[in-house]
Each structure stands twice: as C-alpha cells, then as structure tokens.
Amino acid sequence: MPTTAPTTGGRATLAARALTKRYDGRTALAGISFELEQGELAAIIGPNGAGKTTLLSILAGVLQPSAGELSHSIEQIGWVPQQPALYSKLSVAENLRLFAHLEKLAEPEAAVERMLAQTGLGERADEEVGKLSGGNQQRVNIAIGLLREPVAVLLDEPSASLDPRQRERLWDFIGGLAERGTTVVFSTHNVAEVERYADRVLVLVDGELLFTGTPRELAQTVGGEEGDLEAAFVRFLHARGH
Ligand SMILES: Nc1ncnc2c1ncn2[C@@H]1O[C@H](COP(=O)(O)OP(=O)(O)OP(=O)(O)O)[C@@H](O)[C@H]1O
Ligand SMILES: [Mg+2]
Prior knowledge:
3-stranded antiparallel beta sheet; 2 domains; 6-stranded mixed beta sheet; binds magnesium ion; 35% helix; alpha/beta; binds adenosine-5'-triphosphate; disordered N terminus; single chain; Rossmann fold
C-alpha cells in the first residue's frame, strides 16, 4: 500500500542551523548547518567518531543539542536507530502495535496493517521478532520508524548488518519512500552505496561538515573518476588533513 508523506504546502525541507553538541567539554558536533529538500535521499559519511550518530540522534529529537536550531518538530521525523529497540519475545505485529500505542497514533491498528503491507512483513506478522533473520528484524526496525508516516526518516547505518541481497531490497524500499516524497537521511560506511543511491552526500569529520553536494561533485572535488567514490572520499579526507 503506498504511503504519502503529509504535505506541508510547498517543498518541505529538513534543515539544521549551527548545531553543536558537546559531551563533557569535548565537541562532537561543531556548528553543523544544512538544508534538504523534500524527497531527497541524503547520505552522511565520515570516519568512526565523526559525529554521524550524534547528528542523526539530534535531528530525530532523541538527543538535545548544546546549541543550534532545527527546522522541524520531532513529530514529523521517523527514527531508525542502528540498534533496534525491539522486543524479541513479542511478534512482529505485537511490536508494531506496542510502538503505535507508545507513539499515541490516532489509528494504531491501521498503522500496523499499513506497515506490515508496506514492508512485506504480512506473512511474518505472528512470528517472534527474536527468531527472524537480521534482514527481517531490520525491516521491523524500519517499519517502526515509519509508523507515523513521517515527513523525513533518519536511519543510522541501516545496511550495516545486511547481506548484499537484503541490502538491495533495503535500498529499493528506501528509494521508493524518497520517490513518494519522504526525505531520507542515512549514515553509512559503505561508500559504494552512497554512489549508487544517494542524491546528496554530507561528509562529517571530527564534528565538522566538510562537504555537501552530490556524490559526483565529491569525486570532482579531488579530480576523481566516476565509479570510485570510495577512493575519491579517501583522497578528500587526506587532502583535508585526515
Ligand atoms: N554519550 C556520549 N558521551 C560522551 N561522548 C560521546 C557520547 N556519544 C558519543 N560520544 C563521542 O562523540 C563523538 C561522535 O560519536 P558518534 O557516535 O556520533 O560518531 P559516529 O560518526 O556515529 O561514529 P561510528 O562511525 O563509529 O558510528 C565520538 O568522539 C564519541 O566518542
Ligand atoms: Mg555511529
């Protein structure tokens, strides 16, 4: 069943201005600003500890910034954390139902049915989540993030534990969401999938946003050839002293 992102009149954007996060005096995000258009598929890449999870968590409203502003209210955002907060002893449908109630959705049962259909989990509805494959658990995790039909969905390393076939299915699904107007932001260490699927790439290093543009523009910045964004990315980091 197709879902449509609630329209906000015009091109909804997801924007952040001068986001800063300090942990005990250590700066994890140093004044990040960007703006995304409706239906854009944006990737955040950067070395371990760059601040990707911190940034996504702040955009999702589960972490408070030390300073800065967000364009959106957190009710408009779907959040898919890297570690799924699923109840392994409950079934797929029970998990969805529980989260639909926790999120105080007006029609929880309709939302559950919609997500079962949309993610292809209908046949698994009564199976215990703990007994599903990693790929199907990830689908439940994503379904929970989409329960409230958010304007934008944020996913932290969504493909990290998936095999190539499951990754392909994931990106088909996420691409479909973006085509129907949901803004998608994801983090990854898989630069090849950024090249294949992302409209825009944000490079975050040591809490600073060093680049925003298309994957092709990132490659062009370091005079790279098309088709090897990973090499271009490494050269980009090197050129910036990392
Ligand atoms: N709760 C916390 N308390 C203190 N420091 C933290 C906390 N969470 C994250 N940090 C620090 O903030 C920085 C950014 O961490 P973050 O997890 O956002 O990076 P990341 O880009 O997601 O890394 P990875 O690629 O390993 O997932 C790191 O230096 C990390 O140690
Ligand atoms: Mg992370």
